[in-house]
Q: What sequence folds into this?
């Protein structure tokens, strides 16, 4: 087995969460890499959907935005944005939403809106985009982001999209019938909500990572499941697939730098 | 019937100080050339609407053309922050920016409601999210049949919508293909509309009877501006310049370098300067 980076492990562990039968709403960045690695390895028939309206897309290089031409060129079909959000997402056709985030709390609520008060933010982040309704309308949600104290915080300034809210059966109490976040894949470990409290709990640790490292990089006192397993290391196929698509992507995004 | 005109005339006749203006295009077909003409003509106090304010709205905000903005995701896709937008919200530079923030689903529904001549849109949305606490334009309605409580947002009815399309015929009928976003809804919901196109052709010849066509009688002005969506793209004409989107991060991070860029590439330029980007895709 060749060496691999924590980010490569994260992307590959995230890819493994997806199955061939999934219809997956893909967020940009790390989720997009993971979803396409899944498609190019163990899940060739997975349906990838980007919020720009492209359905069943098979990009050869990773898009920089959610609406690159590559997504439309390789899609089974492309719909308008209102149709995407009304018929396909709200219509309950999406099994899995794959999100990233700037900040997450122990109940997998996400903040991509502001750091500091909303009216006078210290840092103004891009906002929610599709996330609030992806989080409530997809069958389940996977989240991928690197484990750090800045990202995994004790309390969010703003809930952009709801995970398990205050924990327990909060989603049910609000009338939601979808599962919400079922797995959070980081560069050090994999977290899943406790079946009852819904608090994120470490269930799998990547090779070479210690419990102390995980505790050190999390903004709340993180819990470990009774049975924690070792995350299987990336296979040669997984690593080659990821590195190839990253190389193709880097090459494709260079080039025309001419000003408008 | 749409008037085939110049970009300068289309903007001066249809965009007025204080107007509510939607420039749409979901990554694809963003009307950069038209937006730059709005900047050159010094339009001010605009209330901007756009689902994904990207570089074009960063430019309009950075020059101080906007008093407010309604949006659902304000970033440079895959790159990071919009620095001019952040400077306006965090430091009120060059002027304060009133924001009305929604989710994509709500904005898409609100555009559709505007096109359908309805006063508001409803959706199963914002459940457990904090935006309704900070945006008084997110309210609730109860279904009269089931009792389900749904989110409600006002319809989007811009004074003027500006989009870029692939081509138009000489009567001003307009064709869009590829990622069509919310452009049809944004045009139909607006009082006036300006469409820039890659080319004007004798026969529109839509590729399919179901192609997105905006008829001349639903559009106010049509202008031929080849390359007018650069650095976004026009399906079948030219690709998105991801390299420019990446480069913008450095240009916009600093107020001086941003202003120098605007001076050189907007104030001293014209719509004809976009033509060099318009080479047909191989």
A:
């Amino acid at each position: 087995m060749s060496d691999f980076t924590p980010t490569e492990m994260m992307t590959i562990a995230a890819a493994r969460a997806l199955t061939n039968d999934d219809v997956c709403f893909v967020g940009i960045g790390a989720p997009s890499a993971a979803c396409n690695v899944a498609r190019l390895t163990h899940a060739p028939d997975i349906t990838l959907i980007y919020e720009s309206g492209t359905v069943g897309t098979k990009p050869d290089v990773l898009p920089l935005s959610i609406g690159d031409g590559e997504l439309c060129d390789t899609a089974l079909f492309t719909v308008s944005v209102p149709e995407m959000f009304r018929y396909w997402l709200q219509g309950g056709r999406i099994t899995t939403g794959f999100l990233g985030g700037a900040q997450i709390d122990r109940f997998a609520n996400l903040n991509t809106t502001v750091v500091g008060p909303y009216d006078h933010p210290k840092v103004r982040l891009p906002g929610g985009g599709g996330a609030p309704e992806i989080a409530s309308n997809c069958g389940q949600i996977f989240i991928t982001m690197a484990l750090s104290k800045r990202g995994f915080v004790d309390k969010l300034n703003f809930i952009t999209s709801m995970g398990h809210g205050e924990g327990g059966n909060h989603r049910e109490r609000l009338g939601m019938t979808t599962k919400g976040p079922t797995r959070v894949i980081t560069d050090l470990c994999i977290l899943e909500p406790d079946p009852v409290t819904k608090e994120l709990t470490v269930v799998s640790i990547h090779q070479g990572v210690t419990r102390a490292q995980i505790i050190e990089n999390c903004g709340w006192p993180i819990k470990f499941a009774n049975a924690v397993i070792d995350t299987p290391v990336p296979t040669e196929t997984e690593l080659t697939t990821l590195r190839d698509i990253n190389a193709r992507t880097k090459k494709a995004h260079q080039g025309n730098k001419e000003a408008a | 019937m749409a008037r085939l005109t110049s970009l300068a005339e289309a903007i001066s006749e249809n965009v007025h100080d204080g107007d509510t203006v939607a420039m749409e295009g979901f990554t694809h077909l963003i009307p950069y050339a038209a937006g730059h003409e709005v900047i050159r003509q010094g339009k001010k106090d605009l209330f901007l609407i756009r689902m994904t304010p990207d570089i074009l709205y960063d430019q309009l905000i950075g020059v101080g053309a906007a008093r407010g903005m309604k949006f659902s995701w304000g970033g440079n896709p895959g790159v990071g922050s919009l620095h001019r937008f952040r400077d306006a919200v965090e430091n009120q530079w060059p002027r304060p920016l009133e924001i009305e923030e929604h989710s994509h689903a709500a904005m898409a529904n609100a555009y559709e409601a505007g096109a359908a001549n309805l006063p508001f849109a409803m959706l199963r949305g914002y459940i457990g999210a904090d935006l309704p606490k900070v945006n008084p334009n997110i309210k609730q309605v109860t279904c009269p049949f089931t009792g389900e409580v749904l989110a409600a947002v006002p319809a989007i009815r811009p004074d003027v919508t500006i989009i870029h399309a692939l081509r138009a015929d000489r009567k001003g009928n307009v064709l869009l293909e590829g990622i069509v976003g919310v452009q049809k809804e944004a045009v139909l919901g607006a009082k006036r509309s300006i469409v820039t196109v890659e080319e004007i052709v004798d026969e529109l010849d839509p590729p399919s009877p179901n192609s997105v066509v905006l008829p001349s009688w639903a559009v106010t002005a049509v202008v031929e501006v080849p390359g007018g969506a650069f650095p976004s793209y026009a399906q079948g004409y030219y690709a998105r310049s991801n390299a420019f989107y990446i480069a913008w991060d450095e240009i916009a991070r600093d107020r001086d370098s941003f202003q120098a860029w605007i001076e050189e590439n907007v104030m001293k330029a014209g719509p004809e300067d976009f033509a060099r980007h318009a080479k047909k895709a191989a």
Notes: The longest strand of chain B covers residues 160-169.
